[in-house]
Design brief:
Blueprint (H helix, E strand, L loop, with lengths): L2 E7 L5 H14 L4 E5 L4 H7 L9 E2 L6 E5 L6 H8 L2 H8 L2 H7 L5 H16 L4 E5 L8 H22 L5 H21 L3 H30 L3 E6 L3 H12 L10 E7 L14 H27 L3 E6 L8 H9 L2 E2 L8
Parallel strand pairs: 1-5, 1-6, 2-4, 2-5, 6-7, 7-8
Antiparallel strand pairs: 3-4, 8-9
Helix pairs in contact: 1-12, 3-4, 4-9, 5-8, 6-7, 6-9, 7-8, 7-9
The structure holds adenosine-5'-diphosphate and magnesium ion.
Adenosine-5'-diphosphate binds next to helix 1 and strand 7.
Length: about 350
């Protein structure tokens, strides 16, 4: 059985770094591990050996049990439609201007495609552990709601809107998407429009079974995964992290831990200068105040959302080689991430 860890959080907080760190540490403890990463910084990609490789898992040189692959973060609705409809139907669907108008309202396609891909690797059973770095555009929570939204979009909401469901949904769709498209279509096609809409609806219907089955599979597979929310002590990523505990659907699983990355060392809270250098004393005071603030914030977060907290220190140089990635994990404070696989 393959275990899965999903690493999520706001932009630039260290998701890719943490995913790689978990991968290295797990592989060095004897687990066949695959890291699915999105858009790694170049030096990290080099360390993982995926700079030139791409979507197929490949072995990391110098780390016998570690594999890495790039998640496709550019997948579009077009790619998804092509995966789930017969080629001729897909072609007709994606060239229909109604398709663009309708899907333009739902940017979650990247999240959905990434979730599909991750599920495929977990189901292969080739690895003991699959670590999934979630796409940046997803902003976290969408990765977890995308499968259900997709089913909803194709199977429910969209068809209701088009065929005359309740307001305000219908009005919203009509004003924002359908009307301009209908106008264009009207001018070009005149009386052909009705047929075109009907065709579109039928084509869309044929993708439903594929998407519904795949969404259910994703939900089943990823519902057993452990989730880690990465944040820093800054306001914007904190808001994103809070959404995870407040806004995740009730059936979704509570994240296992929040990782406060780039934290100031706790030992700095009581740092004092030994000599009388005014500037040094002032600087130490600044950092110790900030370190104390971060510590307070972590405690409040943990109490408020009843969750485990892991602390990773701000490193003097970006952790991009295998050893410094591992030590990011082994020197982490609070909840030990090694619990995730031992
Ligand atoms: N604990 C840390 N100490 C110092 N630099 C870090 C730390 N964690 C991440 N970084 C650096 O911060 C930047 C953003 O990290 P990254 O993992 O790419 O974030 P994300 O995937 O969330 O966008 C990278 O340059 C990375 O090397
Ligand atoms: Mg990243």
């Amino acid at each position: 059985m393959t275990a899965a860890i999903l690493v999520t959080g706001g932009g630039g907080v260290g998701k890719t770094t943490v995913s790689a760190a978990i991968g290295v540490a797990a592989a060095r403890r004897g687990l066949e591990t695959l890291v699915l990463t999105v858009d790694p910084a170049r030096r990290l990609a080099n360390a993982l050996g995926i700079a030139e490789l791409g979507a197929d898992p490949s072995k990391v040189r110098e780390e016998p049990l570690l594999w890495a692959a790039m998640l496709d973060a550019s997948s579009s609705w077009e790619a998804i439609a092509r995966r789930h409809a017969d080629p001729a139907v897909a072609e007709r669907l994606v060239t229909n201007d109604l398709f663009e108008a309708a899907t333009g309202q739902f940017p979650a396609s990247q999240s959905y495609a990434a979730a599909e891909e991750a599920t495929r690797f977990v189901k292969q059973g080739r690895w003991d552990l699959v670590v999934v770095d979630t796409p940046p555009s997803a902003g976290g929570i969408e990765f977890f709601t995308a499968p259900a939204n997709m089913t909803d979009l194709i199977g429910g909401r969209l068809l209701r809107w088009l065929t005359g469901g309740k307001l305000p949904g219908r009005r919203f769709f009509f004003d924002r998407a359908a009307r301009p498209a209908i106008r264009i279509a009207d001018a070009v096609l005149g009386a052909g429009l009705f047929e075109r809409v009907a065709q579109f609806l039928m084509d869309l219907r044929t993708t439903y079974d594929g998407i519904a089955a795949s969404s259910a599979e994703i939900d089943r597979t990823l519902s057993t995964a452990q989730t880690l929310v990465v944040t820093t002590a800054d306001p914007t990523p904190m808001r994103e992290a809070i959404r995870f505990f407040r806004d995740l659907p009730p059936n979704a699983q509570h994240p296992t831990s929040v990782i406060f990355n780039r934290s100031l060392p706790v030992s700095w809270v009581d740092a004092t200068a030994q000599d009388d250098d005014g500037e040094l004393t002032e600087n130490l005071l600044r950092w110790s105040t900030e370190s104390a603030r971060q510590q307070r914030l972590r405690r409040q977060f943990s109490e408020r959302y009843s969750t485990e907290v892991t602390t990773m220190d701000w490193q003097p140089t970006a952790p991009t080689d295998l050893d410094s990635l591992e030590s990011l994990l082994t020197t982490a404070g609070g909840y030990s991430l090694e619990n995730l696989w031992s």
